[in-house]
Amino acid sequence: MALTKLDQLYRAVILDHSQSPRRRGTLDKATAKIELRNPTCGDVIQVQLALEEDKITDVRFDGSGCTISMASASMMTEAILNKTIDEALHLSEEFSELVQGNEPEDKEALGDATILSGVAKFPARIKCATLSWKALEKALADDGTGVDGQISHDID
């Protein structure tokens, strides 16, 4: 089965984000940090945020996992940088809708992450794609004040 040129482009973007992730590393002065694990496949992601007032001024991720989870984390960091907490949480909701096969209200705001819409065809991969986004949500829990210390959770 031959891939269309569009499918090839999508795969290339996913591979690029996985092999050359954006904003991978650690923040020295993180305001919120969390580690989330997907126990079904072994993916682990750490998300660190620098929050100033209501805005995400810096974000980093680290971890290990499949191509989809690492690419999604890279795409997420680009999408949420310089967004307010409410905007970032809204983007997380939009992304969840996207990978479940639903049309989000503001697809363009997700940037490269829209390319992961094809994950909806593979339900077992939805947790891989949403791992970093769920970590973002948990890190911003508690009214956006962040998480003190390193908190580690399994994904629901």
TrEMBL record:
Domain NIF system FeS cluster assembly NifU N-terminal: 10-128
Organism domain of life: Bacteria
InterPro entries: NIF_FeS_clus_asmbl_NifU_N
Protein name: SUF system NifU family Fe-S cluster assembly protein
Lineage, uppermost ranks: Bacteria, Bacillati, Bacillota, Bacilli, Lactobacillales
